[in-house]
Amino acid sequence: MTTRFWDNRKSMSDNSPSNYLVVGGSHGIGSGVVRNLLASDANVINVSRSASAFASDDRLTHLSMDVTEDQLDKTQLPDRLAGFVYCPGSINLGPVRQLNRQTMTQDYHLNVIAAIECLQAALPALKAGGLASVVFFSTVAVNQGMTMHSSVSAVKGAIEGLTRSLAAELAPKVRINCVAPGLTETPLSQRFLSSDQKKAAMAEKHPLRRVGEIEDVAALVAFLLGSDSEWITGQIIGVDGGMSAIRG
Description:
Elements: H1 8-11, E1 19-23, H2 28-39, E2 43-48, E3 60-64, E4 83-86, H3 101-128, E5 132-137, H4 140-144, H5 150-170, E6 174-181, H6 196-204, H7 214-225, E7 236-239
Parallel strand pairs: 1-2, 1-4, 2-3, 4-5, 5-6, 6-7
């Protein structure tokens, strides 16, 4: 589907489906989030560099954008949003001696600054949407303290702090929660799961003896976006096969 500007007259109809903004919804966990939202008959605005696999669905609007280079324009969004999910992330692993300013700045820009800028653009529509829900992403590595995870733990730790601060600031109009997955099988993590041996070794690190799948995480996001979670805000919720809480 080609990029189009939103018809706000349609979005204001009391009988129209709810509108959701997903940044990074073309691949990985973001794609699972979009799939679940479309299955619930919602309208989805997907902001990403590449088109979604669901581009033929007329309830999906694709805004082609690299959020680290351009800022989302609020005029491209509907007047009301029921929810916003920010999915982009990075997995730059290595020892502290290899960290450099460029890599850390890029990680912080993608994971934190661009998330804040997208939220700022979406905030008027979220506040107009009633009790709207925002979902960010962290990682189990923030809670666990994993070797070689310095950069990703630092930026996702910032997201966890941001989640709690924004939940306090934006209550009661907007709920803010954060999902902290363990290793999940996505294109971003493929280098860690590129063979049966690697996948088996990673599975053994988890109490439930498998790595995560996209739907494991997307299902939790769907719950946090829905009405069944209306009394939940400011939470960091792990979906990690038990890694953050259980010792074998």
